[in-house]
Design goal:
By secondary structure, this protein is mainly alpha-helical. The longest helix is centred in the first third of the chain and has 28 residues.
Length: about 150
């Protein structure tokens, strides 16, 4: 499977945004509270996406097809709340680098399982010795990052 370079650049930019977002969310949470910050983050997100979809007409899909989506695809919204809450809670206590390291390890292990089984209708990408080696190196890197 050839991985498009542009997709990796976009993913890297998303990673940068996630680290910045986590830091900003944690700073907001310290001021107004964890659940309150989680709410505000989602409210601002709703305002931004509504503007993108309806004011600037940036959407390229068809929101009327929402009924065609399987029920479990809606769980992403609930998981978004859990993610923001977890980030707001963990970054002030563990630090940005430590919390982000734990987040990345959790993301990668889950992604490997999803890829291996082709969950949610996604293309299967079997777990290989190379991926196991990468995971081992990531675990070592995570250990080194989290050691004091």
């Amino acid at each position: 499977m050839e991985i498009p370079f542009f997709a990796l650049i976009v993913a890297a930019l998303a990673g940068i945004a996630m680290a910045l977002q986590g830091s900003l969310n944690a700073a907001l949470g310290k001021i107004i509270g964890t659940l309150e910050a989680t709410f505000i983050v989602h409210a601002v997100g709703i305002a931004v996406i509504l503007a993108a979809l309806y004011l600037f007409r940036l959407g390229s899909g068809n929101i009327a097809l929402i009924k065609a989506a399987p029920w479990y695809t809606y769980l992403g919204g609930a998981l978004g709340v859990l993610i923001i809450f977890g980030v707001v809670l963990s970054i002030p206590r563990a630090g940005v680098a430590n919390a982000t390291t734990a987040i990345i390890i959790g993301q990668l292990v889950t992604a490997l399982v999803i890829d291996h089984y082709g969950l949610f209708g996604l293309e299967r990408a079997p777990f290989t010795l190379w991926k196991a080696s990468g995971l081992a190196l990531l675990a070592l890197g995570g250990y080194l990052m989290l050691c004091r």
